[in-house]
Each structure stands twice: as C-alpha cells, then as structure tokens.
Design brief:
Order of helices and strands: EHEHEHEHEHHHHHHHHHHH
CATH class of the largest domain: Mainly Alpha
Radius of gyration: 28 Å
Number of helices: 15
Number of domains: 3
CATH topology of the largest domain: Zinc Finger, Delta Prime, domain 3
Low-confidence stretches: none
Helix content: 55-70%
Largest sheet: 5 strands, parallel
Strand order of the largest sheet: 2-3-4-1-5
C-alpha cells in the first residue's frame, strides 16, 4: 500500500508512537537504500524549517519512498508548522512526513491543513474492555495464555500505562518461562504496583484490612505505602474516615443512602462495604479508635516518625 503523504500522530500514549515508528522503519528497511531513504528531525524553538523542506523534496533512492520523521513537533513554533503544512499542500509529490506530538491543539491552522491530505492518528490511552483485550492479545503474540480474570487482576495492579504494562509483562514472561499459562499467582508474585495504584488503590485496601481486623495484612500495606513515599499525614485522615463509616453503620436509624448523604459521601457504597464488618467493633472500641487517631495526629505533628506512629495506631485498631 502507498504511504500517506503525511502522518499526524499525537496523544499521550507514547507506546503507539513507538509502534508507528517501528512499522515505518520496517517498511523503510525493505529497500536496499534504507539509510538514504530515512531521515529524522527533532523539533525545538529554533527549528530549521529549510533543512526539513529539502529532505521532503529530494528524490528517493530506488523504487521505495523516502520517509521523514519529525519528532517533538509540539516544540516547534506554530508559525513554522504553518509553513510546513502550506508547503506540503503545494507539493503533492513530496516525500512521506510522519509528525509526532505529545499534544496537539486542533484549533490551529496547520492541523486543519494537514488533515486535508494526511492521515491523523490520535493515540489515546486504552480503557476498560479494550485494555483487557490488549493484554490478552499480548499474551497470544508471545505464545502465552491468560484468563480474562487474571488480566483484570494484572491491570488492577500495574495500571493503564502501556509502557508500564509492557515492562511488567516482560517480567511475567521471564517468570513463566516453560509454561503456557500465566496465572493469577504469577501476577501477584511478580508484578509491581504502579505509583498511581499504590497511592490510590492500596491506601483503601489498607483501610479494608483495618475494619476486617487483619493486622498483619494492614501493616504490610502500610509499609508499602510509606516505602512508596506516601505522607503519613495523608494516610491518617483516610483511617479516621473509615472509623466514621463504621460508627455511622452502627448508629444509623435511617437507610444507608440517607446516611451517606448526611455524611457528605457521594453514594452509600463505602457504608455498605463496611457494614458486614462493623459488628466486629463495639461502640467503645470505635470511640477509643478516634482517641487513638487524635493521639497519632499530635505525635506526627511533634515529629515522631510516621512508620512508628501509624504502626502503633493500626495495632490498636486491629
């Protein structure tokens, strides 16, 4: 198939950028004149547009087209990019130009011009079922099998960043060498929680362990959070909120939806989540827990190490 005159590649998911570049390079390497038919430019504020236009206008070697890459094009002044777009519009026989940007303002003149005769590729992050399918397809490409539930567990741990997914998947490939299936146990053993997952997901996993009175599990997650740099003074309010949820469940005289509204919660899910565990606590234990939280707050503000303060608090609560 003939290459498009222009590829306008933009968006935050840089793995797609890399894949498009790899496909273009493979296409280029089919020629015995590959090195002469491949040029790469990097954008900056002082970008030399004339050098780029010369490469776009030069006659290719051999029968295959010349491919020109322009990376970090978002660093180039828009006036310069307007010149490039206008020149390409006026020269339909120019060589193929692949433009790569992390961000693109579609209101600008040059994207509108390039869309008239080029191909736009927006590299959006995958979500939901599409992301699960991506992991399963990745397994197939490498001769591996993975159950759908296992793929979901994997994504819950590593997050949605494709670069992180690929790095963690390489670890799973090495770990499961000699076996066809990658199991949930493999995922739990080998894959690492991404920083975002540690900060947003794990902190609530810890509070779940607290209300379940699973001391060792709660302490383990606490250590993980602190090792990842999560501030103790950010963790403490989340623990206090969990105690308020337990107290609300034990003392409410209305339905949980109304109780959640009175508490300022967006819905009743957090209350329903702790409902089955609230019976593990007496009201006196809940009130003692609030006192322990106040004591921990004073200790942290006096400079006592967060690991010591929060570990003592979790032991008291569980």
């Amino acid at each position: 198939e003939p290459l498009p005159r222009v590829l306008l590649v933009h968006g935050p998911e840089t793995v797609w950028h890399d894949r498009i570049q790899a496909v273009l390079r493979k296409r280029n390497e089919a020629s015995s004149f590959a090195e002469w038919n491949w040029s790469v430019f990097y954008g900056d504020k002082e970008f030399d547009v004339e050098s780029l236009l010369v490469e776009l206008g030069v006659v290719p070697w051999g029968d295959l087209p010349k491919i020109v890459l322009l990376k970090k094009a978002d660093l180039i002044p828009t006036g310069t990019m307007d010149i490039v777009a206008s020149w390409l519009e006026e020269h339909p026989d120019a060589n193929c130009l692949a433009i790569f940007l992390d961000k693109l303002d579609k209101r600008l003149k040059y994207p509108k011009t390039l869309r008239k005769f080029g191909l736009e590729v927006e590299c959006k992050p995958l979500k939901g079922d599409a992301l699960v399918r991506y992991v399963l397809d990745l397994c197939t490409e490498h001769g591996k099998k993975m159950k759908r539930d296992t793929a979901t567990i994997f994504l819950d741990r590593v997050g949605a960043d494709l670069l992180v997914i690929h790095n963690e998947f390489e670890k799973l490939l090495a770990w499961s060498s000699g076996r066809e299936e990658i199991t949930a146990q493999d995922v739990q053993t080998v894959s690492s929680l991404s920083p975002g997952q540690i900060q947003e997901r794990t902190i609530f996993q810890m509070t779940d362990f607290i209300v379940q009175k699973k001391r060792q599990e709660a302490l383990g997650v606490l250590n993980l959070l602190l090792a990842a740099g999560e501030p103790a003074l950010r963790i403490l309010p989340v623990i206090e909120r969990q105690l308020r949820l337990v107290l609300a469940v034990k003392t409410t005289t209305t339905n949980l939806d109304d109780t959640a509204k009175d508490m300022g919660e967006s819905n009743s899910y957090p209350l329903r989540k702790v409902q089955s565990y609230a019976k593990k606590y007496s009201l006196q234990e809940v009130f003692d827990g609030f006192k322990a939280v106040l004591h921990a707050d004073r200790e942290l503000k006096l400079g006592v190490p967060g690991e010591q303060v929060l570990s003592d608090l979790l032991i008291k609560l569980t």
